[in-house]
Design goal:
The protein has about 70 residues and is mainly beta. It contains one helix and three strands, in the order αβββ.
């Protein structure tokens, strides 16, 4: 999940998801994930929980904000 490239921009100029469905492997230690692994390339991730989508953002002050 890196910065937008010309391949990932739609006609309206918005970034789209890569068609390849690229995945990232994360390592869990017990029930823990390191946030540095989650936010290595982006400052926002989308979490799908059932039918709901949540946004987890890393702020400029390195705080986490989870919104629905």
């Amino acid at each position: 999940m890196s910065a937008a490239s010309e391949d990932n921009i739609d006609a309206a100029g918005k970034q789209t998801e890569p068609a390849s469905g690229a995945a990232k492997t994360l390592i869990m230690r017990g029930n823990r994930l390191d946030s540095r692994d989650l936010f290595a390339a982006e400052r926002e991730i989308i979490i799908m929980h059932g039918e709901e989508h949540y946004r987890l953002r890393l702020t400029s002050q390195t705080k986490l904000i989870l919104t629905k």
